[in-house]
Design goal:
- The structure is a single chain.
- This protein is α/β, with parallel strands linked by helices.
- Helix content is about 30%, strand content about 20%.
- The radius of gyration is 18 Å and the shape is globular.
């Protein structure tokens, strides 16, 4: 069985399962539970040009079928990542995809240039975080602004570029088309949904930032619909993210048009879920006599 999947001409994953940015840090913590080499790829925590402290605590609250986070893109900064974190990840046989963000076009371009280094397989550009006042989401809402930004970043970047989109737009297909036209290699759908939690006992918001981003199984139907919509309007690969917790979820997203997936919330509950999901995909392929993952991509059978 061939579980590999192609995200760009020079980016092939050994299997379609990756970590999601923001839930996997820089990989070191999870390496204590399993060999990161089993993954198709590791997607790092979002990085900025300088270290960022993030939002006030509390930052996470559990909700029915998911969780709300308001981390605020806290990170060590690109220089520290390159000097102290990247070498660890390079010790594993997996693709290294670095998520990054900025607040202006110049910041995005400078960040992309700084991360265009050997050992990094691709960059995932975040224009969709709902947890910060200035985190690029302004670009992710306007097709023209997004086209301009992606084109500028593409112009300075020598490795594959993935753009992570927000579900909180009027028509996500217009954003996806702008990304494709600007020559990005792939699209990630979706980021979290804006949400909040209230403690009625004290009549206060639970999160220190008041609102945050909802993730987990609660948003899977939304993500699935968006992947399906986007897959019908673009020809570049789609990476699915949102509520994926089992191998069945992975297969469903692939049938809807995704070439790979990112798993986030589920691994916080069970770090070993990656192993079970990868084994489950192989079992599904064997049971249904499928020789290659490529045979499943976008093969959802719909009523005529």
């Amino acid at each position: 069985m061939d579980t590999s999947t192609r995200i760009a001409s020079n980016l092939v994953l050994k299997n379609p399962v990756m970590s999601a940015s923001g839930t996997f840090a820089y990989g070191e913590e999870f390496s204590e539970f399993f060999d990161l080499s089993i993954l198709g790829g590791v997607v790092t925590k979002g990085l900025s040009l300088k270290p960022k402290t993030g939002n006030p605590t509390p930052r996470i609250v559990e909700t029915p079928c998911g969780m709300i986070n308001s981390i605020g893109l806290e990170n060590v900064g690109i220089p520290v990542f390159l000097n102290e974190k990247l070498s660890f990840l390079k010790g594993f046989d997996t693709q290294i995809i670095v998520n990054f963000f900025g607040t202006t076009e110049d910041e995005y371009v400078l960040a992309a240039e700084a991360l265009d280094k050997d050992g990094i397989s691709a960059l995932e550009m975040n224009v969709s975080c709902p947890n910060v006042k200035k985190g690029g989401i302004e670009f992710g809402r306007d097709p023209d602004a997004l086209y301009s930004l992606v084109k500028m970043v593409r112009g300075v970047l020598g490795r594959p570029l993935i753009v992570k989109l927000s579900p909180m737009v009027t028509d996500i297909t217009q954003l996806a088309l702008a990304v494709q036209e600007a020559k990005a290699d792939a699209i990630t759908c979706i980021n979290t949904l804006p949400a909040m939690a209230i403690d009625e006992r004290f009549r206060r918001p639970v999160l220190g930032n008041i609102t945050g981003g909802l993730s987990g199984p609660a948003i899977k139907p939304v993500a699935l619909k968006i992947v399906w919509d986007v897959s019908r309007c673009v020809s570049i690969p789609i990476i699915a993210s949102g509520g994926i917790a089992t191998y069945r979820d992975v297969i469903q997203f692939i049938l809807a048009g995704a070439s790979a997936v990112e798993i986030g919330c589920a691994c916080l509950r069970d770090p070993f879920c990656f192993i079970e999901i990868i084994e489950g995909i192989r079992g599904y392929m064997e049971e249904h006599h499928i020789e290659s993952i490529a045979e499943l991509i976008g093969k959802l059978e719909t009523p005529r």
